[in-house]
Amino acid sequence: MKPIFLPAFAFALLFASPSAVGQEAERAEVSQTERRLIHPLLVAPLDPEKLLQAVAEHESNDQNNDHLMWLILRAAIEKRQDYRPLLEVKKLRKTQNLRLALAAYRYNLEGREKVLDPILAQLATEEIGADTDSIVILSVLNEWDRSVRAFRKHFIRTDGTGGEAKRTFLATRAFLYPEKYAEMRDALEAPIKWPQPLMPAGKEEQDSLGK
Question: How much is the pTM?
């Protein structure tokens, strides 16, 4: 087995302290059935050694892309500012799911709308209702407008596997951001019929339509 060399920034990151921000995941309350849908690496606190090991393995042989994607998404959930150097690792950006995971990480740190563009653009190219990396990546974002519209458009119709992906998206959002999920429940869970607006009308709009 070849020795694994960590990136130059790795040793500083190994001793970085966990952020107090983004701990909603540990406080959220969801049913055990819902929780079982969520990938374990999105639930467990980020392990810096595992993340940097996965980065090193990817640097040396392009392996463990999916594992690394989950770890980057956990860093996004925790809003870990100390992993910003990952955004500058060019080799990570050459792999689609890692590039999109890094976009999610950047969005959760910065909240800039433009950062969402590559994730939403990729989802728009994919089969309606399919279980895809891009819908998984959207599920960890603390963003409730464009991502919700994209979610509803993607799941206008789906099959068994896609249906589970839809439930997993909802369970992940509810687990990570319970208060915001409760506020947006109608927009997320309302039945989708075609044609119809991708976001249900608000109360004022509903009142005006009823006049």
Answer: 0.78
